[in-house]
Amino acid sequence: MADVSISASHSGSFAECMRTPEAARYLTLSESSLTKWRLTTADGPPFVRLGRRAVVYRKADLDAWIAARVRRSTSDKPMAA
Fold it and tell me: Where are the domains of the chain?
């Protein structure tokens, strides 16, 4: 399947959605990391399931996920939500 950006002008929440390959490039991670996180843990970024197989990531969710991982030291612990 081709890498496709999905835009929906009717709602700001889906203004910038990315398929897994595009989200992986945006995060500089492998597609397999995103797939693994979707299937096995809650550590990965939030995603939206559009159908049985179709998954997209919202840019705002990816940005928030990155921001939540900012640390000043390797010994820093994650902040409580």
Answer: 5-67
CA distances to 19, 25, 52, 58 from 63, rounded to whole Å, are 15, 13, 25, 9
**CA neighbor of 23 nearest in space, from 56, 51, 70:** 56
Q: Give the pLDDT of residue 43.
A: 85
Q: Which tens digits make up the pLDDT trace of 21-72?
A: 999 999 999 999 999 999 987 789 999 999 888 999 999 999 999 999 888 8
Question: What is the separation, in whole angstroms, between the first and last Cα of the chain?
Answer: 36
The model's confidence at residue 80, banded by pLDDT at 50, 70 and 90, is: low
Sheet holding 5-6, edge to edge: 5-6, 17-18, 55-58, 48-49
Element (H, E) at 60: helix 59-67
